[in-house]
Amino acid sequence: MEVGAAPPPFWAGGPAPGQTYIPRALGHIDIGPRGTGTGPATLPAGRTLSPMVTGTSVLGLKFSGGVMLAADTVGSFGSLARFRGISRLLKVNDSTVIGASGDLADFQHLRQLLEQMVIDEELLGDGHSYSPRALHSWLTRVLYNRRSKINPLWNTVLIAGVYGGESFLGYVDMLGVAYEAQSLATGFGAYLAQPLLRAELEREQDRDRLPTQEEARELLERCLKVLYYRDARSFNRYEVATVTEKGVELEGPLTLEANWDIAHVV
Amino acid sequence: EWTAEPVSTGTTIMAVEFDGGVVIGADSRTTTGAYIANRVTDKLTPVHDRIFCCRSGSAADTQAVADAVAYQLAFHSVELEEPPRVRTAARLFQQSCYRYREELSAGIIVAGWDPRRGGQVYVVPMGGLLLRQPFAVGGSGSSYIYGFLDATFQPGMSRSQCQEFVARALALAMVRDGSSGGVIRLAAITEDGVERTVLAGSDLP
């Protein structure tokens, strides 16, 4: 900016008094959309306003000794199950795994950011690594800031990890809403799987304990089966990530067996 | 009205990898609305000697991105002093397609041969995801052949089997999809070069 030039308007792109307000994205160059010279402005680079290839639910559950995440391996292009071998669980470091639903191109972008962060941190060589809680906090800030610029990363992410003997399970979505709980689910899972997970946890709570690893695994698989029955965008191939004191174990792709016996009864 | 419609390569595009290279194919129809603007389009665009891209979506967008990537690859290849990797080309496409995802309408398949990894197929669908697959289809016509592909594809096909597979699949899609048609353009990319063929009229399976 030249010396003495007037500062740019505080509220760029706002409504002109008396005129029809056509929202314009802040700070972009005024290029007309293809084919026409006038009309609503196009948005600046990289804004995700419509998710394209999406992933469905991710489930998370704490058990005694760690945390477990499960997600199917399909990327849906609308209603088409287009990419049937996509991994939606990412091992970040030896103490954390994340699972994402929503736009998978944005998840790939997140994956690149995270992998670079982890590499930079290893290069520091100070023996410290990102804790799951720190990653959750970082993700919350990133996603909230992106939404505040009306340029969200269209993902809902679950972060699971074990650090310093304590297990962690957190949730962040594209609006920057973040919380922790003992059981979490995104997408359809929030409606179908969460009640099942919570019921099991409450039962265990009466005996003052968390489920064992085998029980948790069985419960997650049962929930995935329900989701496969009832979620039209799901698939019967899935992955499971287990984090314990010993580290991260990523299993998959595994196949769900569906039970159609009731078809003969009905 | 047709002047307001963007020129689109409503399309069927396909690429399959085999041991030693890839076979790519596309139809040849470009439409503005319901009018066929070009019935002999070449949607198989080279971005380097042994790396091609198959374009679907908006004709203008894909041509622009392909030109930009071809330039970047040429530069990169000179710096590298060896043929660029197919993965690099795919990544360059992905960077543009992801960055400008709200402005572009481009579904691209990048396929080629490089000395390091042989034949590879990468898909960059709308939205800017990057994924490597043994075979990939794209474009409006692809919807009609997913069933055929699921039933017929087998890993480990030879070059001629791949060519037949691609030709059959494209022919089936072109019959059913109004936005695909014309001739089938095939190309086989291997270490020895690129061999292009055209299947027209009575040659179509």
Automatic annotation (TrEMBL), chain A:
Keywords: Cytoplasm, Nucleus, Proteasome. Its main location: nucleus. GO terms for biological process: proteolysis involved in protein catabolic process. It comes from the Eukaryota. It comes from Loxia curvirostra. It is found in: Nucleus. The keyword Nucleus applies. PROSITE patterns: PROTEASOME_BETA_1 (PS00854), PROTEASOME_BETA_2 (PS51476). This is Proteasome subunit beta type-4. The keyword Magnesium does not apply. PANTHER family: METALLOPROTEASE TLDD (PTHR32194), PROTEASOME SUBUNIT BETA (PTHR32194:SF6). InterPro entries: Ntn_hydrolases_N (IPR029055), Proteasome_beta4 (IPR016295), Proteasome_bsu_CS (IPR016050), Proteasome_sua/b (IPR001353), Proteasome_suB-type (IPR023333).
UniProtKB/TrEMBL annotation, chain B:
The keyword Protease applies. One of its GO terms (biological process) is proteolysis involved in protein catabolic process. Signal peptide: none annotated. GO terms for molecular function: threonine-type endopeptidase activity. It is found in: Cytoplasm; Nucleus. Gene3D superfamilies: Glutamine Phosphoribosylpyrophosphate, subunit 1, domain 1. Pfam families: Proteasome. It catalyses: Cleavage of peptide bonds with very broad specificity. The active site is at 11 (nucleophile). GO terms for cellular component: cytoplasm; nucleus; proteasome core complex. Component of the proteasome complex. Component of the proteasome, a multicatalytic proteinase complex which is characterized by its ability to cleave peptides with Arg, Phe, Tyr, Leu, and Glu adjacent to the leaving group at neutral or slightly basic pH. The proteasome has an ATP-dependent proteolytic activity. Belongs to the peptidase T1B family. This is Proteasome subunit beta. The gene is Psmb6.
